Predict the 3D structure of the following.
Amino acid sequence: MSENTAEKVRSIETPEGTFTIRLALDDLGEIYPGMIRYTVEASRGAETVYTYAVNSYEVPPGSLIDARQAAEIVFSRLAHDVASRPERYARPRVFTRPLPGSGTPDVVILQGSPRRFGNSARIASWCDEEAARAGLSSRVFFLQEMDIRACIGCYTCYNYGYCPVDDDMPPIIRALESASVLVVCTPVYTGTVPSGLKAVIDRCQWLHAREKVLEREVHARGLLVAVAGRRGAEPFVCVTRVVGMFMENLGIRPAAPVLAGNLDRIRDVETIAGLRDTVQAAVRALLAPRDEG
Ligand SMILES: Cc1cc2nc3c(=O)[nH]c(=O)nc-3n(C[C@H](O)[C@H](O)[C@H](O)COP(=O)(O)O)c2cc1C
């Protein structure tokens, strides 16, 4: 986390000991222009027992109070609360939900089609098979079977590195954080990715925040495999851009995408000569150890 500047400090003597209430400012302008985070903390000795954070991007235009005013209000109320019932602050109060701890795969495959047995799912199984052949663990996330809600644009992930939306996203975030390879398998829907995959892509802003705020780096290399009904390059223009931006945002280095069109006529990817080999060779190239220098 960046070094912060203490704006206000108040010391409070109580029967439970001496508490310090601190309001600090972090300039997060390197993440987004003008982003400032205010953190209000109560500590007892060296131990932080309560934390509240708010940033300037959370506050929509026209709000009655800005982030700084919100932090000032919390500072005053917290000082009052600590003085009047210090026993509540004798132990740390943790508000974040931990991510799943272990069992993360080497290869993460995001299967973006709502069709459980469609072309993208078939391609995902080829990628899974290739990872297994290389002796690596892999996991296909069938996004349509998961409860993933749309990003609400609250920006609170930039406060603590956690997202407040309570759904099935945590295992995906945890897996991407430690994966060495990410494969996105998706059909083209109205020129871009299906809405379920788009929701995951947007919610990965949380991972971007973890990288920036908690300095959790993502080291994966990425591959897009997309299918489309129409023939030619045109159906893929937007999907390659969207998935490219997604990877770029997270610092994932993308390989050249594998794109298979004309499926309105061909129907089944299994019948496209050489496609399975092409996909598996692309995955294999990412699995190979590489000189990182
Ligand atoms: C709602 C919807 C929108 C689609 N939009 C496009 C499109 O814009 N361009 C295109 O070439 N194909 C489009 N398709 C066709 C799919 O990309 C194609 O059928 C693909 O093979 C489906 O992959 P899947 O079997 O993995 O679901 C669309 C299909 C659906 C159901």
User: Anything to note?
Assistant: The beta strands are 5-14, 17-27, 36-44, 47-55, 107-111, 138-142, 181-187, 221-227, 253-254, 258-260. The pocket of flavin mononucleotide is lined by residues 113, 115, 118-120, 187-191, 227-230, 235, 263 (CB under 6 Å). The two ends are 26 Å apart (CA to CA).
